[in-house]
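Q: Membrane-anchored ubiquitin-fold protein, please. Structure only.
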Amino acid sequence: MAEVDDQLEIKFRLNDDSDIGPKPFPDATTVAALKETVISQSPREKENGPRTVKEVKLISAGKVLDNNKTVKDYRSPVSTLVDAVTTMHVIIQPLLTEKEKKPKDGDPKMNKCVCSIM
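A: Structure for Membrane-anchored ubiquitin-fold protein:
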């Protein structure tokens, strides 16, 4: 029974409805380590797959998970049930390049006030 308490079965749901896992993770596993698992086990044939931890967001029970916290910090009461599997949703947000970050000089939307005072 102690083994069930110290580990959490996690399945990662990707945005194309495919899954990674479920796999058991110890309670001391950080969210950053979970993201590394997602990166290493993501399908390689996808051109927009994650490359770094910063590109991956994990969502569990409606919360975006913080890299520094552990699996134990996000454990729900349901996860203590026998054969329970926690599903974490994976969001991939590729990092913007410097070219994409810089606004265009001729962009009419930049520095334009859209407030209306009545």
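A: Brief note, in case it's useful. DSSP finds three helices and five strands in the chain.
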